[in-house]
Amino acid sequence: DGGITQSPKYLFRKEGQNVTLSCEQNLNHDAMYWYRQDPGQGLRLIYYSQIVNDFQKGDIAEGYSVSREKKESFPLTVTSAQKNPTAFYLCASSTPDRGGSEAFFGQGTRLTVV
Amino acid sequence: QKEVEQNSGPLSVPEGAIASLNCTYSDRGSQSFFWYRQYSGKSPELIMFIYSNGDKEDGRFTAQLNKASQYVSLLIRDSQPSDSATYLCAVKVSGGYNKLIFGAGTRLAVHP
């Protein structure tokens, strides 16, 4: 079955640690996105990528980094520079072939600082 | 300036009534608009998408788009308690990079 897989589902980070969230899709989508969601809030865009080896900063990129070496994969690293990383992280993908194709989401990773 | 605005709610409606959810956006060049439903603790799931001015119906859901007013809405007819969730409006902004921006969401509560 085609879909987007995020792992792990739950992640705990110690102060000062870098952690990497995985996002893999087998939908053959070119565009991929990372969002952060805080309790009771909407989705805020961290990074997005339209094609392999290209990505753009979203609205809250500070303290995060990404790579897009393969079409299927778009991992997000939460660095120690991100001072308040506790949140729900969502990865999505879409095809930009048409002007308005919808984005599909993974199940999310809940990150907690301990 | 926020690019996509929604009333955070909660919007409370009785079972069987019509729920009306509204969204405004700032990028006049946007061409694609989406409504997602998100249950607590879950990831968003697509309800409707609309690209052209006017209405688009799918079962109990109707999306309405007015590009001149930069306004998109979602109507839910015969609301059910299972419709209780947060509804997120999303806009794919213009500029060639497929940037997808979400509003903060409107929480809908349907009471029996």
Itemize the secondary structure elements and their pairings.
The complex is a heterodimer of chains A (114) and B (112).
Chain A (H helix, E strand, L loop, with lengths): L3 E4 L2 E4 L5 E7 L5 E7 L5 E9 L2 E4 L6 E3 L9 E3 L8 E8 L9 E2 L3 E5 L1
Chain B lengths: L3 E3 L4 E4 L4 E7 L6 E7 L6 E6 L3 E5 L2 E6 L4 E6 L8 E8 L7 E3 L3 E6 L1
Structural write-up:
- The complex is a heterodimer of chains A (114) and B (112).
- With 114 residues, chain A is mainly β.
- Chain A is built from no helices and eleven strands.
- In chain A, a hairpin with a 5-residue loop joins β4 (31-37) and β5.
- Chain B has 112 residues and is mainly β.
- Helices cover 0% and strands 54% of the residues of chain B.
In short:
Chain A has 114 residues and is an all-beta fold.
**H-E order of chain A:** EEEEEEEEEEE
Q: Residue ranges of chain B: pLDDT <50 for 5 or more in a row?
A: none
- Which outline of chain B best applies? globular
Order of helices and strands of chain B: EEEEEEEEEEE
Overall mean pLDDT of chain B: 92
Task: Give the distance, in angstroms, between the N- and C-terminal Cα atoms of chain A.
Answer: 35 Å
Strand content of chain B: over 45%
SS element count, helices of chain B: 0
Number of strands of chain B: 11
Biggest interface pair, counts: A-B, 26 and 24 residues
Major sheet characteristics of chain B: 6 strands, mixed
Question: Which structural class should the secondary elements of chain A be placed in?
Answer: mainly beta
DSSP E strands of chain A, number: 11
Give the structural class of chain B.
Answer: mainly beta
Whole-number mean pLDDT of chain A = 91
Shape of chain A: globular
N- and C-termini, Cα separation of chain B: 38 Å
